[in-house]
Amino acid sequence: MRIGHGYDVHRLIEGRKLILGGVEINSDKGLLGHSDADVLVHSVIDAILGAAGLGDIGKMFPDDDSTYKDANSIGLLKKVYERIYKNGYRVINIDSTIIAQAPKLSPYLKEMSINISNACELAENRVNVKATTEENLGFTGENKGIASHSVCLLQETNIK
User: How far is Cα 94 from Cα 118, in angstroms, rounded to an integer?
Assistant: First the structure.
């Protein structure tokens, strides 16, 4: 078994859609980034790649590569899953926490979990997504950005 941790953060700005876990959230602000800036999925990707010892999202999908401009992060997650599977790993479970003062995310969490579980070919009960605020503290508490932490447990299928 191998464990990985992922963290991502993006600034909130006007004029962009807010995408989290592959779900468009009703909000007057979205996240700034090269792709769709889905901090939840980006933290999941980093957790998976870290557990497999395969670097991070920036190494696999560089932000100076126009191929990934406005990319759908769920699509990127599917590519990560395919890569780790070919490298002899399978995802056992994923646990994530989104840190955002607003908007209220609880109505969207189930759909986010389903999107991530589908991308990683997992049963729904193997992906958990939760959200919290920071009680108006720090950049997320001041609604300047959104952050996410994720952990992933992988199992090696070709142990030597």
Answer: 12
- pLDDT greater than 60 at residue 160: no
- Residue 111 is given by DSSP the state H
Q: Where are the alpha helices (DSSP H) in the chain?
A: 39-52, 57-60, 73-86, 109-119, 138-141
Exposed e or buried b per residue across 36-48, where buried means at least 16 C-beta atoms within 10 angstroms of its C-beta:
bbbbbbbbbbbbb
With CA atoms as reference, report the closest residue to 113 among 72, 77, 62: 77
Which is nearest to 148 in space by CA: 61, 2, 17, 31?
31
14 close to 28: Cβ distance less than 8 angstroms: yes
Rg value, the chain, Cα: 15
* Position 47 pLDDT exceeds 80: yes
Comparing 45-49, 68-72, 126-130, 143-147, the range with the smallest average pLDDT is 68-72
